[in-house]
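#struct-help
A.M.: can someone run this one for me? Single chain, 188 residues.
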Amino acid sequence: MILENIKDFNWYNDPQNVRFVNNGMLIETRPRTDFWQNIDSHFQKDNGHLFAQNCGGNFVLTVKWSFPLVKNSAQCGLMFRSDTLNWIKAGLLSPSFVMPQLGVVSANQGSCDWSAVELPLECRKIWLRLSRRGKDFVIMYSLNGNNFHQIRMLHLPKVSDVAAVGAYTCSPGEESFECVLEEIELAY
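D.P.: on it. Structure tokens below:
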């Protein structure tokens, strides 16, 4: 049950609205929110919504999101945040109104990269898993909650031992986005 797992979680940048529904926590984002860093081009956004707890050492974080509609640039997923310039986000990250994509972005000392793969057109739920071993991270996803597939492995050299870890959502466009956090589990 989601309520049992969220007692130590707090918001970094409150969303527009949060309420509990039958299958979890429904979150409505604020428009024009995102996490992105590119200090070379002077474009920095750090106003996305992160529901996280501080976590030290190695861990495995698993989240499940459902989203009734795919919206342009709408995002929901998981995040590891050491600080403003060093973090990872992974999840629904669609650059169009129709085709859902799974994206992984890492900010490494203020420079973001982005990788993405298309998800099935009918995709409306996704499970994500992030494992940390020191400064090494593995991101996996599943479309059914059972079969997880690795999408990325990366190393972040400038991360602190204790960092914020949890579920994030945002909508860089002009519209808000509704999604439901159905499960979140942090294991050490």
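A.M.: thanks! The chain has one domain: 2-187.
D.P.: also worth noting: The first strand starts at residue 10 and ends at 12.
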